[in-house]
Amino acid sequence: MMMRMMMLISGGSIVSAEAVWDHVTMADRELAFKAGDVIKVLDASNKDWWWGQIDDEEGWFPASFVRLWVNQEENTAVETVEGASPSPSEVQNGHADASPSSSDCLCQPAQDRDQMRANIINEIMSTERHYIKHLKDICEGYFRQCKKRRDMFNDDQLRVIFGNIEDIYRFQMGFVRDLEKQYNTEEPHLSEIGPCFLEHQDGFWIYSEYCNNHVDACMELSRLMKDGRYQQFFEACRLVQQMIDIAIDGFLLTPVQKICKYPLQLAELLKYTVQEHSDYRYVAAALAVMRNVTQQINERKRRLENIEKIAQWQASVLDWEGDDILDRSSELVYTGEMSWIYQPYGRSQTRVFFLFDHQMVLCKKDLIRRDILYYKGRINMDRYNVVDAVDGRDDDFNVSVKNAFKLSNKDSDEIHIFLAKKLEEKLRWLRGFHEERKMVQEDEKIGFEISEYQKRQAAMTVRRMTKQKGHRSVPPGYPPPMDPMNPGQYLVGDSMEQSEFEFPEPERCKSPFWQSFSRFLFFYFLVFVKMSNAGQMHQSCIVFVIIY
């Protein structure tokens, strides 16, 4: 097919390809496109990466992402690249429709359906083999060579640039070996590859760490590439390994693209797999698993993008003590103001609570400037159970409660009781505690954590922003404009409406001291006038002392 294409191109024929999947690029010489775009193929000498043009833009793109057409004005398809791929109408919102189409599948002759399934199986096997080669090139061509140059790379830099690429390489080799065992070379449509995805489903979670680290890898590479030595070194590595002419960041993007492509391939395979096929229920289950994997990876990536907001929020809280929030947490689950009673003191206090994964932070509003928060402690959520409290007299505190719940220490008799203003608010808190525990369990399952490099980057960003503002004494307004909540929304149960957190930036004067002092004098003046009219001048002095 390649020879035929090159003959057509050299002979002046119009060779165009229609994109069936979005191609998101990171390298300068890659060509970005969306499903449905038409690409003019200029060079197809490499079977994996072609050189093409869209309008005035030229660059490399993966051949498996397109459907090939020749003389497109005649609207005649001649061959599908790497087997069958879904048409643009079948690709919506980044993935193909998993349900079999009656027009595409049921009405097709059995022979055509078998051929389409065989094409898709062949495409999956071919792309897996090529992917293994890419991983090998990264590990042997780049990573091993970088480890030899201790004068250019330290351990932290290697960890940031390559992440867990060697773990992914080892996992993929085992996965491909099992795929090969299930692959029917003589009759590919009879292959049963669904069970392979199910058997290895836990292993795919290692992509989460790599994808979360990928943005930092690109930033570090961009910084190094400003030095000509590193440009020459990486180019020499590519030439020695005989890799295609793509920059290193393009190769490092391959695992990110691969994990996102699995749901698309499985959805297309399911479409051309009849329900009577022995592989049908396994492919359906594998599709659900891989969609969940990619969804969770995207969610973890979103959380990492929010860590700077969390660091900024912590910087706005005065009198902070102890560890940073990012040492244990990465997501704000819920926040609100409640009354709080804590044994053994038994005195009710009003506090603003911020529930993160693993911990809940307690803050107090300033008496005059209500937009200023002071740190007052935190509760380790890993050590407490959440208990609903019935309205009425509480036996533990001997007080009447309403809309309350408790946090009970698992290892001692320590109990905290919280009183919300409304029942709806209490239910949202209970829902928030449930989501917090669920998030912690999922993070433990896939080994999600914030790297030290990411923490340092967040801290540097906060310091840079604080320096640009010129001072630290004026904290952000409460609730903070850079609240770590994901774009200001928290989803509650179906029976409850959605609670939104959208905090406008408060107006601030140049000096909070003089603003607070002027408010205080005005307040005292009103008290003074009122008491003077009642002939109680001496009591006004007492009020002044107490307020002061």
TrEMBL record:
Its main location: cytoplasm. Interacts with GPHN. One of its GO terms (molecular function) is guanyl-nucleotide exchange factor activity. Coiled coil: none annotated. InterPro entries: ARHGEF9_SH3, DBL_dom_sf, DH_dom, PH-like_dom_sf, PH_domain, SH3-like_dom_sf, SH3_domain, SOS1_NGEF_PH. Residues 331-438 form the PH domain. Residues 12-71 form the SH3 domain. Residues 116-300 form the DH domain. PROSITE patterns: DH_2, PH_DOMAIN, SH3. The lineage of its organism: Eukaryota, Metazoa, Chordata, Craniata, Vertebrata. Acts as a guanine nucleotide exchange factor (GEF) for CDC42. Promotes formation of GPHN clusters. One of its GO terms (cellular component) is postsynaptic density. This is Rho guanine nucleotide exchange factor 9. Residues 1-17 form the signal peptide. Keywords: Cytoplasm, Guanine-nucleotide releasing factor, SH3 domain, Signal, Synapse. Residues 78-105, 464-484 are annotated as: Disordered. It is found in: Cytoplasm; Postsynaptic density.
